Amino acid sequence: MTKDEFIAAATAAARAFAANGGSPAGVAVAQAALESNFGQSRLSRDAHNYFGIKTHGSLPWTELPTHEAIGGALVRVNARFAKYESMEACFADRERILTHVAAYADARACVSDPEAFIRALARHWATDPHYAEKLLRLYREHGFGQLDQH
Fold it and tell me: What pTM value is reported for the model?
């Protein structure tokens, strides 16, 4: 999948949820691009997991090495990640997580402000202390904010 093909597919998946009052589409596309390296990561290719979502419930999973920031240090660990049948299924699960998990209440409260949404989302989504800045930079540089214009 080329970068342009990834952006088109991710945009279509994200818009389905944004249209129904879900999280901002541009943020979802930017986050998927960041987490999956525009669909080039092994996790996205092998498991249709574009957000680094860890396994939960009865979902199938795959175990892969990853890096987590623990105590201020970047540590390589093996983690179990959810495995999806499609990009759309992964985006649907992300939306379900953001809608129902209490930790994302702050993000839900600022869904109409994509940049504030990113900062609130980042506090719980990743261990990387620079996650919000990385996501904001990608969101701005690639013009994903255009997807969130009303």
Answer: 0.94
